[in-house]
Amino acid sequence: MSVSRRDFVKTSVLGAVAAGTGAHAAVPESLIHPQGHASKSDPAKRPTIICAHNGYAYVEAAYAFLKNGGDTLDAGVRVVKGPEDDPNDDSVGLGGLPNEEGVVELDACCMHGPTRRAGSVGGVRNIKNVSMVSKAVMEHTGHVMLVGEGAERFAVAMGFPRENLLTDHSRKIWLLWKEFNSDRDWWGPGLADPHWRSPAPDSKPQAEVWRERIEQLQQRAADLGIEPEFQLAAVRRVLFPPTGTIHCSVLNEKGEMSGITTTSGLAFKLPGRCGDSPIIGAGCYTDQDIGSAGATGSGEENIKVAGAHTIVENMRHGMSPQEAGTDALKRIVRNYDGDMNKLRYMDMTYYVLRKDGAYAGVSLWEGYSAGNPHKFVVHDGTLRAEVATPLLKGYSQEWPPFPPIPDELKKNSEYLK
Questions:
Q1: How does DSSP assign 332-360, residue by residue?
Q2: Among residues 86, 101, 56, which one has the least CA distance to residue 375?
Q3: Is the entire prediction scored with pTM above 0.90?
Q4: Which position among 245, 262, 326, 389 bears the catalytic label?
């Protein structure tokens, strides 16, 4: 069911939020998305690959590799390595959006079901394929996790080349943010702080505020040399810093499973910040006996509910993939007592694969904007993208906070690029 932003804001709670009254209430029943049937193969098929939507172009080759007897983790690496290598994908690896100091820092973790091993790296600079570095930690050390300078030095010792990960495109977007939006950064208090308050509404009409800010940013983007066709996309990244991640879970015909997650992390984050992606049990978790799960979205929120581990444990106790993922989303909502004034600033998508081939994609909100639902990729013999099942109706507004986009601007397609 599709719900427009106008209908969404008309609800009693979000109406109060939009008016800046600081409403605090449990999630109204009218905002809960009706739960349908879980997305799953019927009958469930093996092998199966499930991943975030930015891995679509790389799944077909990985599936062929898997069908020919390739290892499940190696197949997962083949999926996530694609976005890591792509300088035009600013969510992962080379060209990833940097931290607030203009430095790209990458995180990754992996779990290999057949041998029940895991590897992880966090805050890695100058190394492009951190998914492969996490696998090397698993295979060549007695550790599970390496971070920062030590992880970089280990990667170099293993033969990974150092290289500058900040592309000219990402550097210009960072400069645009630095000049115009760094006052809306990640210094506290955060959403979880009891003293946090929603920003006061601007005295100008919201449509005028948005129009002025977008036009100002677009002009500066042009001054910085950002190509005309990419200027509005750059503006959107400044206004709504993306979280930027890819997860992939893999199941072969023998029932062997693996999972892997890699990211450039939250755009313009504080140096040294690690989200959920390098955390075993949060951004990725695989149990050979049960299934595999991973996440993209608000990493801090997922860490607090140990999302991937929670989902796999839920399946261990009999929940379907969709039920298991939805329960983890409800835990995020519970951490904020259903306060829509805060929940609108976060989002989460879980990718869930059970050992028998049943799967699901679930999300906290329907998407980031109308017409752009959260999607995930499945290949169980047929490659396709499916829409994730949301817990809440409507669309998130990512942190840092900024007044809602008025309907009259959202209808103008140029502001959605």
A1: HHHHTTT-HHHHTT--EEEEEEETTS-EE
A2: 56
A3: no
A4: 245
DSSP per-residue codes, 79-106: HHHHHHH-TT-TTSSTT----TTS---E
Q: Is 411 exposed, middle or buried (0-12, 13-18, 19+ CB in 10 A)?
A: exposed
**Residue-wise pLDDT tens digits, 358-373:** 999 999 999 877 778 9
The answer to whether the CB of 265 falls within 8 A of the CB of 244 is yes
The runs of H, that is alpha helices, within 10-55 are 12-18
Single-letter residue type at 90 = D
For the chain, the residue count is 417
Quick one: average pLDDT of 275-283? 97
Give the Cα separation of 86 and 98 in Å (integer). 15
Distance CA 106, CA 98 (A): 9
Distances (CA, A) of 333 to 328, 339, 395: 9, 8, 15
Is 245 considered catalytic here?
Answer: yes
